[in-house]
């Protein structure tokens, strides 16, 4: 085994051009620096280059939305609608829980009042 390794190393040192083989995907963007600065992982996901129009009319007319810009806008509207829907459901669940808790408490009080009645001489004292 040792001889094979020496032969491979000797053969490898005679070649002047070597190729490196990457076994994992390399990220060319420094993600740690971007996270420290509070920036998104993908620099093309947000910013003036993606959010602003590609051109403007000199006479002041509004520019049409780009395809990706329109898609992002529709996606954000869907997310906002979903947030409103879920917050409404959450409020309903909170109110329902409170109603159930109150009804359980009132039922408990009703049972206690029906069960505990004065007996014996206490019954006669209460009538007076």
Give your account of this protein's structure.
The protein is an all-alpha fold and 128 residues long. The chain has one domain (32-127). The chain has 5 helices and no strands. The longest helix is centred in the C-terminal third of the chain and has 49 residues, at 67-115. It is elongated, with a radius of gyration of 37 Å.
Features:
elongated, mainly alpha, transit peptide, ribosomal protein, structural constituent of ribosome, mitochondrion
The SSE string, one letter per element, is HHHHH
Count of helices? 5
What is the 3D shape?
elongated
Q: Tell me the major beta sheet.
A: none
Subcellular location: Mitochondrion
Keywords: Mitochondrion, Ribonucleoprotein, Ribosomal protein, Transit peptide
GO molecular function: structural constituent of ribosome
Biased composition (Basic residues): 116-128
Q: Could you give a quick summary of the protein structure above?
A:
It holds the Pfam family MRPL52. InterPro entries: Ribosomal_mL52. The chain is mostly helical and 128 residues long.
Secondary structure topology:
Blueprint: H1 2-14, H2 31-36, H3 48-51, H4 67-115, H5 121-127
């Amino acid at each position: 085994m040792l001889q094979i390794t020496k032969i491979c190393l000797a053969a490898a040192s005679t070649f002047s051009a070597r190729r490196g083989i990457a076994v994992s995907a390399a990220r060319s963007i420094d993600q740690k620096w971007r996270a420290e600065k509070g920036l998104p992982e993908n620099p093309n996901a947000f910013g003036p280059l993606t959010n602003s129009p590609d051109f403007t009319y000199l006479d002041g007319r509004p520019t049409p939305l780009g395809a990706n810009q329109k898609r992002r806008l529709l996606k954000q509207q869907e997310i906002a609608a979903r947030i409103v829907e879920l917050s409404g459901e959450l409020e309903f669940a909170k109110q329902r829980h409170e109603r159930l808790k109150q009804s359980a408490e009132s039922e408990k009080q009703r049972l206690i009042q029906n069960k505990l009645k004065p007996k014996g001489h206490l019954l006669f004292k209460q009538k007076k």
